[in-house]
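Exercise 7. Given the components listed, write out the predicted structure of the assembled complex. Treat all entries as one system.
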Amino acid sequence: MIMDSTDKKLLELLQKDAKMTTKALALTLNLSVTAVYERIKKLEREGIITKYVALLNRNTIQKGFVVFCHIKLIQHAKEYLTTFEREVGKLTEVLECFHVSGDYDYILKICVKDMEAYREFMVTKLTTLQHIGSTHSTFMIGEVKNSTAFVL
Amino acid sequence: MIMDSTDKKLLELLQKDAKMTTKALALTLNLSVTAVYERIKKLEREGIITKYVALLNRNTIQKGFVVFCHIKLIQHAKEYLTTFEREVGKLTEVLECFHVSGDYDYILKICVKDMEAYREFMVTKLTTLQHIGSTHSTFMIGEVKNSTAFVL
DNA sequence: ATTATTTTATTATTTAATTAGAATAAAAAT
DNA sequence: ATTTTTATTCTAATTAAATAATAAAATAAT
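Answer.
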């Protein structure tokens, strides 16, 4: 889809605050309410905007302990990959899982309460997954930037 | 704050779809509209819900090339860390940056159009930052799971 | 230049968010 | 045990926003 600078500005605004009213958006974009409304509907139809979500503060819900876990599989047969991916997708502590190139096969982002909860997770869940070769845990000690908003 | 199971269910619903009307929420939670409304306002006041945002599909906006970049600084004086963090925060291609324990000091998630754009980013932006010791790029080849929603 | 297509604006309608006030229930104090 | 306070819920009314319908303007295609 061909996006003009108004569409981009609109997306940047909605990525920051999805609760902005079309009226407020119209005002900052110098358009009418309907014009904004139609543009948003189009961006949704085209699959550019995928969803609207509430973001929570990890620390207030006992999920402040963040770990990046690098995982290597024992083998790389397609069946091994898909089995692992299906199983890891079910683990609620794993918020993100990316298949990557390089020294490791997967990078996981895991959010739990504390180190004890992480130990429990490792022992009872992660390391019981099939086909896992090795894991390497890296602990977050500070959050410099954590944005869901792309700059267009 | 003490959250009951209704608060948790409410948060899970809003994390999935922030556009659900209070009426629809009230229906699924077996509460009145006002009760739901008041609970949401409280969760916002308490800083548990931090914001509502639109999520975009990377691939439709020329940001489908995702790289995890592991960075080591040359030294770890506080001034070096803060300078680096301030500068990296300004880079629009860097969506996330975490200070971590272990072999590297920082893990960055970078989203750009393609490898050429990444090369350009590395040469003109990332590697020009002060105090950088080494970088190690890991390329995303598949997205298994990428959620912003905590399971409570 | 003329027609077709898309985008925008105005107005009307529907739907949802918010507020007000009363009722209920839980917690703290006497 | 009983009153008082506090918090949470409900129903109903109000305010505000989203959506739809229609008309006008702008853009692209012939």
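Discussion: Chain B touches chain A through 60 residues (CB under 8 Å). Chain B has a mean pLDDT of 96.
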